[in-house]
Amino acid sequence: MNVDERLPSEAELADQFQVSRSTVREALKRLAAQNLIRTQRGATGGAFVRRLSYDEAYAQHITTSTLLLSMNAVDFQTACEARFALERACAPLSSARRTPDHLATMRAEIHRQAQPGLSDERFCDSDVAFHRALVDGAGNPVLSYQLAGAVEAMQPLMNMITFTQRNRDVIIGLHTRIADALEMQNGADADAALAELTTYTLTLGEEAMEARARR
Amino acid sequence: MNVDERLPSEAELADQFQVSRSTVREALKRLAAQNLIRTQRGATGGAFVRRLSYDEAYAQHITTSTLLLSMNAVDFQTACEARFALERACAPLSSARRTPDHLATMRAEIHRQAQPGLSDERFCDSDVAFHRALVDGAGNPVLSYQLAGAVEAMQPLMNMITFTQRNRDVIIGLHTRIADALEMQNGADADAALAELTTYTLTLGEEAMEARARR
DNA sequence: GCGCGTTTAATTGTCTGACATTTTAGACAG
DNA sequence: CTGTCTAAAATGTCAGACAATTAAACGCGC
User: Fold this and answer.
1) Nearest 5°: phi and psi at A104?
2) Which of A195, B89, B95, B188 is the most buried (most CB within 10 A)?
3) Do A184 and A94 fall into the same domain?
4) Does B116 contact strand D, using a CB cutoff of 7 Å?
5) Could you tell me which residue, A118 or A72, shows the higher pLDDT?
6) Could you give the number of structural domains in chain A?
7) What domain range includes position B209?
8) Is the pLDDT of residue B214 over 80?
9) CA pseudo-torsion sign B133, B137, B141, B144
10) Please, what's the b/e burial string for A19-38 (b: 16 or more CB within 10 A of its CB; e: otherwise)?
């Protein structure tokens, strides 16, 4: 079945498979839920094979990853390690290919992170946006897609951390160093800064876990 | 809603939302298709919130990634670059943590790849199995999950390549070098070998594309 | 009281037929 | 040729019925 090809009508399918139209409809709803078909009403309507769009797959991947992490109690350390390992894979590509647009986004998010009175949640939002710009800088949509799951799904875990001003200063410093390195096209330093950010984030995570355990 | 919590019965939902039971059922089928609920028949039956299992999410991620690559005509170079960049992110972790089991799997697949008369398709299967062992060696399920999409979804693209004996010898040599490096816990050399494998695979891909264009 | 069939009730699964809604294609008048 | 109306085709929704399945309640002998 090729993209945009039309499936037989519900009545025809019901007849063909010797089931009722209700049953056919439930099956079609299943396919629709998986974004495999779209339905259209009217005379020339019906169910059509759908092209899986990048944006939909991206959103779905994030949802699934987030659910997977939260429902299976993946620990902070494992998720964090995976996230930064993958991001570091992007660093050399991103330092070679990042556009002024990516750099501008990163600078803007750093500026936002430094604003006083920013809630922890907003700080995390901005953090995700910063790292997404870093990943997108590699200019490889497949990479961006695969990493979306790791970066965005970490956000609920990151939200458990309380970011003190001191914490934020350290993170902002490393973010600045990463942005600088990418601007200078210095992949090695970007990688080094990401490595530091990894260990620092792991430390923060451990502290948050301990604080949570004491409560 | 927590895991294993029960939703109201179809009749209750229909009553609550003032729609017919058919409509409720179609909606429930949608949720079931997304693996969000499971239904159970009988007296104490109903729809229950489902824990998203790692294996299901893994399988779904591969399916979606494969569809995304094939339906959106992602070029070989982009997919290949993403795949190897991500794999290289695993190399240091895998060289530190790989178990004898992972090494044995890699050796076995290398042996299989050297067998004469192996079809191109089987060679690709084995290649994927080898790289999966490499990734799993990092001992991070989140990493394995995220990489599954990149590694497995590449397979259809890899299957377009015709592997001559000479090609295979080069790849097997690099695979052996990777396995040796992991065994010696030499992350740097594993990374270097993966880098070589990246450029070599890209070359093969380009040749295959040219051959296909000439036809 | 305890074990063991039997019944009963609740729930999902399926079928049937009907009607509403939407959309296109074609007939028809101007 | 153009605009309008109508018919047909398709999905969307509804109501009601029955089948299938499962667990709990019941009754009964012991």
Assistant:
1) -60, -40
2) B89
3) yes
4) no
5) A118
6) 2
7) 54-214
8) no
9) negative
10) eeeeebbbbbbbbbbbbbbe
CB B79 within 8 A of CB B100: no
Which residues of A fall within a CB distance of 8 Å from B143?
81-82, 85-86
Same domain as A36, residue A96 = no
Whether nucleic acid strand D comes within 7 Å of the CB of A33, the answer is no
- Residue A3 resides in a domain: no
Shared-domain flag, residues B100 and B42? no
- What's the pLDDT tens digit per position in A88-132? 999 999 999 999 999 999 999 999 999 988 999 999 999 999 999
Å from B103 to nearest chain A CA? 21
In a domain, A1, yes or no: no
Q: What is the mean pLDDT of residues B179-200?
A: 95
Same domain for A111 and A208 = yes
User: If you average pLDDT over every residue of chain A, what do you get?
Assistant: 92
A70 and A128 co-located in one domain: yes
Residue A4 domain flag = no
If you average pLDDT over residues A64-74, what whole number do you get? 87
Contact criterion met (CB < 8 Å) for B29 and A34? no
**Strand D nucleotides with an atom less than 7 Å from a protein beta carbon:** 7-17, 20-24
Distance A41 CA to C25 C1' (A): 15
Which among A26, A86, A145 has the least Cβ separation from residue B26?
A: A26
In CATH, what number is assigned to the domain containing residue B79?
1.20.120.530
Where would I find the H helices in chain B?
Answer: 10-17, 21-33, 54-71, 76-97, 100-113, 120-136, 141-153, 155-158, 165-183, 187-214
- Of B19 and B72, more confident: B19
Assign A130 to helix, strand or coil.
Answer: helix
Please tell me whether residues A119 and A160 are part of one structural domain.
yes
Q: How far apart are CA A71 and CA B201, in angstroms?
A: 38
Please indicate, yes or no, whether residues A40 and A96 belong to a single structural domain of this protein: no
Mean per-residue pLDDT over chain B, rounded: 92
Quote the pTM value: 0.86
Confidence of residue B215 (pLDDT cuts 50, 70, 90): low
Q: Is B26 contained in some domain? A: yes
pLDDT at B72 over 80: no
| Protein CB footprint (7 Å) on chain C nucleotides | 9-18, 21-25
